[in-house]
Amino acid sequence: MKTAELKQKALSVRLIALNAIQKSGVLGVGAAMSSVEILVSLYFGDINMKQVLSVSPFKPGWDGQDYFVLGKGEATPVLYAILADKGFFDESELRFFSQVNSFLQARPFFKVPGICISTLSSSHALSQALGIALALKSEKKNNNVFCMIDACDFQNGQIFEAMTVASHHKLNNLIMIVDDSSLQSEGPIRSVVDVGFLQNKIDSFGWQVYRVVDGHDFDEIINAFSKSLNVVRRPVCIWCNTVTGKGISLLEGKEGYFNAPLSENEYNLISQSLK
Amino acid sequence: MIGGNYNIGAFLNSLSKKTKNFAVFNSLLKKELCLEEFMKTNEDRYFDFGNGISSMFSVASGFSARGKTPILFGYSDLIISRAYDQIRNDFCLNNMNVRIVGVGSGFDNGLRGGAHQFFEEVGILSGLFNMKIYSPSSLSGLYGLLERSMGDFGPVYFRLPLSLPDELVLEPVVFDRDFSNEIVIITYGKMVEVAKEVVTLFKEDGVSISLLSVDEVFPFNYRKFQPLLFAKNVFLIEDQNRNGLFSEISRSLVLSGEKASIHFLGIQGRFSESGKPLNLMKKYELDFLSLYGKIKEKLV
Q1: Rounded alpha-carbon distances, angstroms, from residue A12 to A43, B13, B38, B175
Q2: What pLDDT, in 10s, does the model give residues B269-280?
Q3: Nearest-angstrom CA–CA distance, B262 and B245
Q4: Given A120, A129, A161, which is nearest B62 (Cβ)?
Q5: Which of A18-27, A76-85, A156-165 shows the lowest mean pLDDT across its residues?
Q6: Which helix (H) or strand (E) holds A165?
Q7: What global pTM score does this model have?
Q8: Which of A69, A110, A134 sits opposite B63 (nearest CB)?
Q9: Are B23 and B3 in contact (CB under 8 A)?
Q10: C-alpha to C-alpha distances, A199 to A105, A150, B133, B279, nearest whole angstrom
Q11: Residue from A63, A161, A176, A205 to probe the interface with B (highest B Cβ count within 10 Å)
Q12: Of B75, B82, B63, B72, which Cα lies nearest the Cα of B26?
């Protein structure tokens, strides 16, 4: 897909995800919006005519498929909007997102087509992705496993355990994407618990780190994916600087909307602007 | 070495000849369980995690998502306390096909103090949906249960002390008969060996007594074991019975609306302390002579 098409796709994904969030009453609209370009690049972007993430709704469990594990729970409606667009399930299901009896749970759930594993606790996601990558390596397979977490997940020690193990096993089929909007639900990450300049630290764990200065620039993101797929004997981290509420002027960069609901008025204004 | 008698490596090697679809995840028990034997011939299916217990559990769920069955080995006190979050969210909520082998439960870890003597697993894990808890009383029982469990689906926890007898031959219990004039002892795991000695003493006294070893502790098969619960004298022995099989049997009785008189023998409502396992068992009146005396005292 060309950049202009990716931009168009991001716009529609944003609108579908926003509608699902608003209807369900789930919090985290600002946090979800910062991930849109990353996930659209992953699912719709291509490198030399090959999809970045090889998945197909028509061939579930096929041998050549790649895996995506979403640790950043707030981005779940964005992921569902993409999976619906890809044909994993009908878009109309998103009307029932996170409601009673809906199979679209608030966090990625393994019963949803296109979701390979439930990630109900965000700090477990990297370890879970590592488990899939390790299993693939032990089967002598080269399928890639992508995992997206939030920068604030580095406040949890399990991430560092997983980084150590991934490096020990030289899992170059494991690609960790970090969505760093510098915010978390309680405010700026640096004022809650400052995790410091992590890129050097991750490198010191034996990972290859690529920095995406603008985590909403498709060319830059896909270029990082392209480089990451050629790394040998090291797991990869793609560190993306993003903006909370991106794509919605009312919310962009605003701390208050990271994890807060929109009023009916705000929602109407925003949804009109996205159409 | 801490004095265990397991050679699980040899068992896993024999298991790998029957099924290739499992992998071994280990935290700190390579030497104690002789896992090196398995590691040498199965490098692509053996993974050490050292002290990284939380990640070991989540990694296992990822492994399981590839259709494999990871068997996790670790000290019971460390793994259950530290990885409850992962067991609940990564294993049970997803009904993942994993086998957790917790080693060092009960008094066996006495020399390491109260923190390392773990009695609470049955209580903790029986609160989790999809979880099964097995507590074999011998090594042959463990190997049989582990092998059989490879055909099951969902998470299973194996509760093990530091050592178990190789074999423990028990008189089989025939369920469809009248137990009303008998003594029945119900127990599991390490306590079965102790209870067997109690039974021998009573038999020498000419008393009619049955010993039931409940290897599959949770979910408790109430319908199967129900006839024994209504014997004249029923004793449930477990190292700690505040929320173990005690709770399961009590709950089953309340739900069924049936009344049974059962004596519960075991530590109630406190942690243990440092000491040699046998000395601790004596202190808490769970050695065979104390149990024999206590049961005699309570006989109707």
Answers
A1: 14, 54, 53, 66
A2: 788 889 999 999
A3: 12
A4: A129
A5: A18-27
A6: helix A157-168
A7: 0.92
A8: A134
A9: no
A10: 32, 14, 43, 54
A11: A161
A12: B72
Are B62 and A127 a contacting pair at CB < 8 A? yes
- Residues belonging to chain B with any Cβ–Cβ distance to chain A shorter than 8 Å: 23, 44-45, 47, 49, 52, 54-55, 57-66, 68, 85-86, 89-90, 93-94
Secondary structure element (H or E) that encloses residue A50, with its range: strand A50-51
Residue B4 is predicted with a pLDDT of 62
| Structure tokens belonging to residue A35 | 């991930």
Question: Which residues have C-beta within 8 Å of that of residue A220, sequence separation ≥ 6?
Answer: A212, A213, A214
One-character DSSP codes across chain B: --S----HHHHHHHHHHH---EEEEESS-TTTTTTHHHHHH-GGGEEE-TT-HHHHHHHHHHHHHTT-EEEEEEEHHHHHHHSHHHIIIIIITTT---EEEEESBGGGGGGG-GGG-B--HHHHHTTSTT-EEE--SSHHHHHHHHHHHTTS-S-EEEEE-S---S----PPPP-SS--TTSEEEEE-TTHHHHHHHHHHHHHHTT--EEEEE-SEEES--HHHHHHHHTSSEEEEEEEE-SSSHHHHHHHHHHHHT----EEEEEE-SS---SS-HHHHHHHTT-SHHHHHHHHHHH--
**Residue bearing tokens 């994904």:** A13
Whether B65 and A134 lie within 8 Å, measured CB to CB: no
Closest by alpha carbon to A101, among A91, A111, A89, A87? A111
Return the number of CB contacts < 8 Å for A and B.
89
Residue B3 pLDDT more than 70?
no
Amino acid letter at A13? V
Nearest one of A118, A197, A132 to A162, comparing CA atoms: A132
- The residue of chain B with its CA nearest to that of A156 is B54
Q: How far is B96 from chain A (nearest CA, A)?
A: 10
